[in-house]
Amino acid sequence: MGGYFSDIFYGGKSLLVGLSITFREFFKPTVTVQYPYQTIKMSARFRGHIELLADDTGSPKCVACGMCQRACPSSCISLDSVSVDIEVDGKVKKKKVLSRYDLNFTTCSLCGQCVENCNFGAIDFSKEYNLASTRKEDFHFDLLDRLKRLEEKKA
Amino acid sequence: MSLTLLNVIVAVVIAIAFAAANAAYLVWAERRGAARIQRRPGPNINGPFGLLQPPIDGIKLMTKQLMIPGGADKILFMVAPVLAMAPAIMSFVTIPFSENIVARNMDIGVLMIFAFASMGAMAILLAGWGSRNKYSVMASVRAVSQNVSYEIPMLITAITVIMVNGSMDLKAINLAQAGGFWHWNIFPSLQSPLMPVSFIIFFICSLAETNRAPFDLGEAESELVAGFHTEYGSMGFGLFFMAEYANIVIGASLTTLLFLGGWGCPFGLFPGVWWFLLKIYLLIATFIWIRWTFPRTTIYGLLNLSWKILIPISLFNLLLTAGFMKVF
């Protein structure tokens, strides 16, 4: 019988504690953002899909060595290069230039092996997270084209 | 007082409009309140503070097709939402909003409201039975056992109040409480020292009777899909929702009328309909606050609370009140 009344007392008390917690929370500021109108800044270590980085002149830093392609465990990177003649100090030299860099994001596991293996710091994780689509073709990214568009926007 | 047809129509239209407006904007208040407690903004896109959200929700519900599941009992399925809404509207007829604002004051107002409130359980039973869905039937069984167990302590506490005031007329009960908060039934009077306990029991029972969280076992989403209204879409679902909120308003009104002095001011100043509305909306805010604080109880916990705690205490209170009334 003693347990009966102490149960009612402590049960009621715990209910009042719960009510006081929600009452205090009611007057605190909101912690969410209004998503389509506001977005939060992704943290420095956020891993989006990879992106090519540009050098000072706006062309990709990538030298088309293909280390990222070889390091990728899911074979989602494919790239091509063409050799062009450029003039350095009055001499004509051949140089490999990246002509195509495709990422198949449908199989990417965001392991970051490509970023780790790049000796030229030419690729990094993007901060892109608005990735939703009903077609899988939308996740085959042409990263060279993306870089070009980003550079145009910057200029 | 002669009741013309026009009087009846005006009263019914006002009752329906009041119930519908309350249902619409209590949903808004509930969503905003829940959001504040969970520290988000809640619906705020449509109109200022999201105030256009309820009409938009209503239009959406009304434009949807009314689906009747195969194998369902068509008549019961269609009747149940109407049967949920009609008693809720009927109860408004006898609720006095102030000394003069009452559609039809009755000598047995309390009894009539309880009689109509019991019909709500019938609607839930028919909805579950007519849907031909095992989850709906289970929800109905729960809801009915819950309503049966909570009606007993609710009625016993109501009887205590009726004994103290000596009337079943809601207007007379309130006139007896007029003139300052120390006359209200919630405070221990000479007749019954346990009146605050009665008030708490009555409040808990009105939560359970209106199927509100933490006692919303009839629509336990985590176990029973959506409970008794699983198979209802469009305005069938809308009517159940409106009935739920109309019942909340009635529960809050009845609590106010029986315990909190109705339209009387706490300090005896300017008694009127505004005090009544202030009191019921404060009680409804408490309903919302409770819903977003406590998790849902189990069906055993729910029935144990009623049969082992609320009924013995309310019976003891009834006997104590009777004893005090005899002695003093």
Can you tell me about this structure?
The complex is a heterodimer of chains A (155) and B (328). Chain A is an alpha+beta fold and 155 residues long. Chain A has two domains: 1-31; 50-154, Alpha-Beta Plaits. Helices cover 30% and strands 23% of the residues of chain A. Chain A is built from four helices and five strands, in the order αβαββαββα. In chain A, a hairpin with a 2-residue loop joins β2 (77-88) and β3. The longest helix of chain A is centred in the N-terminal third of the chain and has 25 residues, at 2-26. Chain A starts with a helix and ends with a helix. Chain B is mainly alpha-helical and 328 residues long. Chain B has one domain. Chain B contains eleven helices and no strands. In chain B, α7 (195-209) runs antiparallel to α9 (234-259). Chain B is globular. The model of chain B has no long low-confidence stretch (mean pLDDT 84).
Q: TL;DR?
A:
The complex is a heterodimer of chains A (155) and B (328). Chain A has 155 residues and is α+β, with helices and mostly antiparallel strands. Chain A has helices spanning 2-26, 67-71, 113-117, 143-154, and strands at residues 50-52, 77-88, 91-104, 123-125, 140-142.
**Rg measurement of chain A, Å:** 27 Å
- What is the CATH topology of the largest domain in chain A? Alpha-Beta Plaits
Share of helix of chain A, binned = 25-40%
Q: How many structural domains can be distinguished in the coordinates of chain A?
A: 2
Secondary-structure element pattern of chain B, one letter each: HHHHHHHHHHH
Task: Classify the beta-strand content of chain B into a percent band.
Answer: under 5%
Helix content of chain B: 55-70%
Report low-confidence residues of chain A grouped into runs of 5 or more: none
Nearest-integer average pLDDT of chain A: 86
Major beta sheet summary of chain A:
3 strands, antiparallel
Shape of chain A: elongated
CATH architecture descriptor name of the largest domain in chain A:
2-Layer Sandwich
Distance between the termini of chain A: 81 Å
